[in-house]
Amino acid sequence: RRVTMRVLIVGGSGYLGQFLLKYLLERPEDEMIAVGYTYADENAGPIDHPLTKIDRCRAFRVDAATGEGMDACVSAMAPLDLVVNCAAMSSPGKCEKEAELAMALNVPTHLCKSLMNRHQQGEAIAPLLVHLSTDQVYDGESPNSVEDVNAPSPVNTYGRSKLNAELHIAENYVAGRHVSLRSSIITGSQPPLRPVSRPLFHDFIVKSLKGDAAVTFFEDEYRCPIAAVDIVAHIVALSKLAGKDAKTDWLMRYNMGGPDRLSRVDMARQTAEVLGVSEANLEAVSSASVDRGVISPADISMLSNKLNSLTLVSPMGWKDQMRLALGMAKM
Mean pLDDT throughout 3-11? Predict the structure, then answer.
């Protein structure tokens, strides 16, 4: 059957990338979506899963920092309709310690260059480029930030690298064929194709609630968590809206969070409600009580109305996110 869409997920072996990869590979045969994804860890290698072994899925080892393998990957998947950039060094603490590498990984210089080379060599329509950015481009001084009202002013290396990425794409990619999504904390179960080694925040909450010892959670840092499956829904909707032969008149950047403005202790308390357990051992503390070696913005809650109105996606709130992540609700 004829392939109807060609998609490249940069960082597709990572947490969010796997949710998108699974969604695309499970589409019915009449859609015939060819999907390529990149992985960076030579030791881990490509994802070993029945879905990734089907003919229309291809894996590419790419070093996003140096660009090694990027041209070959883009050429092999051409002509592309959609490119989703999930690759990043996403730990603010690690970014602070390895600032140069963080900038090299988080600003998609090589991806933009490879895509533009293909476009300039004769591809009439550049693929839609969806870039995953972060709420940490905001300084945390104002609640409920709005993308075209509150100017970004990041306070740490991670936020600065992500803002630099947004600006680089705007300056170096085809106008009307890119969008950056400023994501808040991403929630969900272990990724569907291969587990990640890092602990997930909801697992830490559940473990804390099951223990007897007091566990501290910050009460003065606010976020708008969003489920991985809702991000996938946003991306899929954007790809359909963009089409293959038109420039969009969207904003270049959108906030992408869930409907709830919550502190870490709020998240823990609501999780206790979902589980029907006591929250007696939860202790609310100020974020200033812990030296994390990196400045963390206090209130980067966001209003995501503009993106939700565009895609017609209604992201679930924290309690439903926890039910889904803990297997208490079906995806």
Answer: 94
Helix (H, G, I), strand (E, B) or coil at 145: strand
Q: What pairs with residue 85 in β-bridges?
A: 10, 131
- Give yes or no for a contact between 169 and 112, defined as CB atoms under 8 angstroms apart: yes
pTM for this model (two decimals):
0.96
Q: Kindly give the pairing relationship between strand 186-187 and strand 253-256.
A: unpaired
Residues 6+ apart with CB under 8 A from 53: none
Residue 296 CA, distance from chain mean position: 19
In the chain, the amino acid numbered 118 is R
> Rounded distance, CA 107 to CA 86, Å?
11
pLDDT tens-digit profile of 236-252?
999 999 876 667 778 89
Count of Cβ atoms closer than 10 Å to residue 177 Cβ: 18
Q: How many residues comprise the chain?
A: 331
For residue 237, give the DSSP letter: H
- Biggest CA pair distance of the chain: 64
In degrees, rounded to 5, the angle at the alpha carbon of residue 312 between the alpha carbons of residues 309 and 314 is: 95
Cα distance between residue 302 and residue 124, in whole Å = 36
Q: Find, among 39, 17, 92, the residue nearest to 293 by Cα.
A: 92
H-helix segments, 173-227: 201-210
Average pLDDT over residues 53-81: 96
Q: Which amino acid is at 57?
A: C
Name the strands in the sheet holding 57-61, side by side, starting at the edge strand that comes first in the sequence: 57-61, 33-39, 5-10, 82-85, 128-134, 178-183, 253-256
> 270-295 burial string, b = 16+ CB within 10 Å, else e?
bbbebbeeeeebbeeeebeeeeeebe
Collect all residues with Cβ–Cβ distance below 8 Å to 211 and sequence separation of at least 6: 281
